[in-house]
Structure formats: C-alpha cells, structure tokens
Amino acid sequence: MTEHTHPLAYRRSLKGQTRVDLANLICAAAQRRGLRSGTDKHRVRKWEALGVTPEAETQVYIAEALQLPVELVDPDDWPNWLAGSDGGVVPFGPSSTVTALREALITAMERLERRAFLTISGTAITALAAAWATGRGTPLAAQMEGGKLVGDDMVTLLENTSRQLNSLATDQRQHVSALVDAHLATVTDLIAHGRYDRATGLRLHNLAAFLAQTVAWSRFDHGQHTAATKLWIAGLHSAHATNDPDLGAAMLGDLAYQAAWRKDHTTATGILQHALTRTEHPAARSLLHLRLARTLAAQNEKRATLRALAAAEHHLGATSGRPLPAWCAWMSEADLAVDSGQALLDLGDTRRAHQLIAEGQALLPPARDKTRGVFLAYQAASHLGLKEPELAAHAASEALQLARRIGAPRCEYLVQELLPDFQPYQHAPGVPELLAVAAA
Q: Which superkingdom heads the taxonomic lineage of this protein's source (predicted)?
C-alpha cells in the first residue's frame, strides 16, 4: 500500500483536503473536547506513507475530520475501517446519508475518475444490498437545532424544478445536467446543515434519492461508472433513512443493471435477489424480475430465466391499491417484450427473440428516444443472429443516428459493440454505409 493508495489519502482527496487541512481538523476535534493534539502534516504523512498507526483517540478525531460516522472507528483494524478500503462503499449508519451524498458529489464532479484507488468492488456492493435487505433504516428525526430553517416553499420549489428538469425530452436533458447536479448539492447541504421537522426531512431525503438516481443515470450513460455507482449508493442511503423499501429497491435495481452491463452477472444477480426480498409494489417487482431474467440469461440459466420472465409478466399485470412509484412508472409492455426478447436471444431462441423485440419496438411511445435507441440496437443484434445483415444494418444505423442526435453515448456504445459482427457482411446492402458512419 503506497501513500497514494492508502485509505486515508483516498478519504482526504475525496474531501479536497491537504495534509495540513486534515491535521488542522484533527486538532480542532481535540480542542472541542478540551484537549490538545500534536498532529501536523508530517504525522499525517507517517500514517499514509510509513504505515504508522494513529492512537485510538486520534482515530476518532480522524473520523470526525473526514465526516465519517464515528461508529465505524475500530482502532484495532486501522486503516481498514475507513470506508474507502471496503470496496469504496459507505456502510449504513445514523449519519451515513450525508457522508454518502457528499462522497458521490465529489466523485461525480471530477473531470477524470481516479484509477489508483477508486475501485468499487462487487462484493462490497452486494454486502451493502444484504445489509439493506436484512435491516431497517434508523427512524428519521427532526433536525431542529442549529442551521437555518428550511421552509415548505423552498422544498416545493426544489421538488418541482427537479422533476421539470428530468421530464425534458432526452435531447434537451443533455443541456441541463449541471443544473441537476446543483440541485443535488443544494439538497445535500440542506439535509446536512438545515433546520427542519421530520416531514420536511423525509421530503428532503426522498428528493436526494430522486436526484442522486437522475445524476447517476447521466454519469452511467457517459461511461463514468464509479461516479454512477457512488450516486446510486448515496440514493440507497437516502431511501434507507426514509425506510421506503421500494425506493431502496430502485437504487439496487440500477446498481444491478450497471453490474450486468459491465458483464459482472454474479454481482447483478446477488443485488437483485436481495432487492426482491423487500420490494412491495407489483410494478417494481416486475422490473426487478425482468432485470434478473436478463442477467440469468447471460449466465445461460435457462430455467431460472424463464421463471423470472414469468414473474415479471405476472407482476406487471397485477393491481395494487398503492400509488405507482415514480422511478418505475415508465415500465410497460414494450419493456417487457424487448427485454424478454433479449433474454431469449442470449439463450439462443433467436426467432422468438426477434419477434418479441419487434413487438416491443412497435409499442414504445415516441417520447422515449433513448430507450428506442437501445431497443434498435437489440433489434440489430437479433437480425444478425438470424443472418439478416441488411435489416441489422438498417436498425443499427437508425440507433446510431438517434444516439448522436440526443447525446446518448451508451446507446452508441451498443452499436459499436455490434460492428465486428458486421465484418463478414461487408458487401451486404447498408453495411458499408453503417461502418462508414460509425467510423466518422
């Protein structure tokens, strides 16, 4: 472990702190207790570079300086108790929501992701999902001391504008990402420093989860996977604080989708299985079962895939006396058909897969351009599986043009992944044109 990859250096860098900054904050923590600390930048370097272990009391001050839950401190397990060493995942705790949100914001605002030590392990994410599945959030209390009062009008304004920004057409949302980022930063500051009653606190945490999820998808679409993971984890912490199981399942479902996208199907399966233990609304269960079917199919688990697809179809048609969660309100027969088709495509049932993907494409409403682009890429893959290069090239070209128009690099990536499969058909109608456009 070098000084650049030491968990303390990682935590410092997340906070934008120099060694001098950290030393000053440690001294301040001691002073609040009427004590003195001799910590300076040279001592911090000894901890990070020379493997020196701080005293137990000093480790408490370090946690406070880094805004980590003091409950994490385990002097006998230095430096492993630092959350950054546990796969990059902030564990649940009474004060973990703001910690997770701030860490996610710092990571999301970076121009380049850290490669040295900002790797988030699938094992750690699955463990967090298990902790969510077996535990309940600490009851959210009012925060009525210190800070300035957070009024209803302020929260309503943030709620309304956040949803308006997210409801813009896909080709317009690409222009307002900085505004959504700013809304999340504002809500995080209000949770951390504002004064509010319990009802307002619940609204702020729900809004934080919504915004974290929105920003996460934006980062994910642009290939910024570490930032996206941190944001979904922060959303999970916010949902956990409100004890809303369906909202927590939303974040876990997205983390599983990302893991499957990155071909980590073991992690995706584990997350989804934990998520399904507490998910309540039928539409939410339908979506999670559908995602489970996709990742099971990628592992060639045919029977389990078909069971998950049947469950997804059953729950999508089920009625519920409760409001539909906003995060899965878009779930429709179109999504069920296309993702079922993609699962069957992975299992080798190409003809039926093609039929379902075509049906779903026809059912998709015009407003969902990004999803249409993804579906077109799936359609191109199914045509290739049937050795129909002309039709595949047409669908892939349409997906590529749409992705570039609306600013959807993830959709473009799907098309780029298919290009090697077009090489045997370079003389088929439409294929040379596709290859030329893709290379442009």
A: Bacteria
Print the domain residue range for 12.
7-85
- Bridge partners (DSSP) listed for residue 143: 196
Burial environment of residue 17 by CB neighbours within 10 A (0 to 12, 13 to 18, 19 or more): middle
Write the pLDDT tens digit of every residue in 1-53: 334 457 788 778 767 789 999 999 999 999 999 999 999 999 999 998 888 99
Model-level pTM?
Answer: 0.78
Which CATH number do you get for residue 67?
Answer: 1.10.260
Q: How far apart are CA 412 and CA 407, in angstroms?
A: 9
SS3 state at 149: strand
CA–CA gap between residue 57 and residue 195 (Å, rounded): 30
Together in a domain, 100 and 77: no
Residue type at 206 in one-letter notation: N
Model pLDDT for residues 137-168, shown as the tens digit of each residue: 667 888 888 788 999 999 999 999 999 998 88
**Residue 294 maps to a domain:** no
- Are 227 and 107 a contacting pair, CB within 8 Å? yes
